[in-house]
Structures are given as structure tokens and as C-alpha cells.
Amino acid sequence: MSQASLAERLGVSQTAVSQWETNKNYPDISTIKELAEIFAVTTDYLLNVDTSKLKKENEIVVYNRIPAGIEWANIQDRYGFEEIGASYLDTGKHFIGYRISDKTYEPVFYENDILIIETRDNCNNGDYALVQSRLKDAEIKRVYYKNNGILAQPVSYQGGEGEFFVTNSRDRFTILGVVREVRRKFVSEEEE
């Protein structure tokens, strides 16, 4: 299609079409929609959007690291996306993924496990929870409620006895979510 015939079809000047082709100017949104219809492509294609990097409706963001004091949407250290099923989507609850990036949590969780976490500010006694304490990066801990506080035990038996946080103390302890599922990829010896 020539610039002149495209310009006539869109009701713009041939100069405008020429400027779009040379990246000197860009069409407005309504014109982009018309161009997509004319060429039978998506607007994402016209705008050169890599749709493989966009989150789909049935996916959650998987984080490698969750630093203290940063809102979920602003965390840059992301692993990618993980698909979740209708059993999660239909609950109306919010979920995130957390990738285990080392051997710290063995033998319960292994490196590269993806934990599906329901974001919430409380958990049941004995739950594995994503927690933050003393302005450190979030960690997975086993949480136990005691008479005057919370015991946050390491997942790994080699991780020590845990930390005790007295209720209403200055030590900040926050539950960010509860582990609901573990997704483990089995790696063959050839892939290692």
C-alpha cells in the first residue's frame, strides 16, 4: 500500500504517514487502532510490545527477593510469572510467587522451588509464612504464636532456634503472606 493511499484511507496527509515511517512523528491512539484493523494485526504488534513479558489474567508475579519497605508493584527483582488455576482466582484473594534462590530452606523447600503465597497479614500457628523483621529482606519462616509474642523459626534445621518477637515491642515483625503451594521443577542429570 502506498503512503498516498494509506493517507487517503485514514484521512491524514501523506507527510504524516511518511513521518510515522521515519519515526519523526507518531499516530494518535485512534489512528493506531485503525492501522491495526487495516493491516489485520494487533496494536501490540504495531507498537512493538513484547507480549511474552506481559502478565496474563491467570498469572501471578514471581519475586526473587522482597526488600523491606517497598510496595509489591515497585519491586524490581522479579523472576517472571507463574500460572495459577481457577481455585485460586475464584477466591477473591491476592497471590504472589516467591522463588527460592538458594539452599537455605532445605530440606523443606529446594532451590528454584516456586512458592505460591496468599498475601495476608496473619497466619495460623505452625504455618510457613513470608515474613519481614528488623527491616531485612523477606524470608520464609515457620510461625508460632506464644502467650506474649511470636516465635519465627527458620525452615531449615540448620538455621538455628529462631527469633522471638514480643507483642508490641520495637522489633518490627510483619507477616506478608502464607505459603499455600510449592511448585517444584525436577531437573534431570543432563540439565544440571
SSE layout:
Blueprint: H1 3-10, H2 14-21, H3 29-39, H4 43-46, E1 59-63, E2 78-83, H5 86-89, E3 95-99, E4 114-119, E5 128-133, E6 139-146, E7 149-154, E8 163-166, E9 173-183
Parallel strand pairs: 1-3
Antiparallel strand pairs: 1-2, 3-4, 4-9, 5-6, 5-9, 6-7, 7-8
Helix pairs in contact: 1-2
Overall 3D shape: elongated
Measure the end-to-end span. Answer: 52 Å
Q: How is the main sheet built?
A: 9 strands, mixed
The first-level CATH class of the largest domain is given as: Mainly Beta
Kindly estimate the percentage of residues that lie in beta strands according to DSSP: 25-35%
Question: How many strands appear in the DSSP assignment?
Answer: 9
> How many separate domains?
2
Per CATH, the superfamily of the largest domain is: Umud Fragment, subunit A
Which architecture of the largest domain does the CATH hierarchy give at level 2?
Ribbon
Strand order in the sheet with the most strands: 2-1-3-4-9-5-6-7-8
pLDDT < 50 runs, ≥5 residues: none
Report the C-alpha radius of gyration, rounded.
25 Å
- Helix/strand-derived class? alpha+beta
Number of helices: 5
Helical content stands at 10-25%
Mean of pLDDT: 86
Topology order in helix (H) and strand (E) letters: HHHHEEHEEEEEEE
CATH topology annotation of the largest domain:
Umud Fragment, subunit A
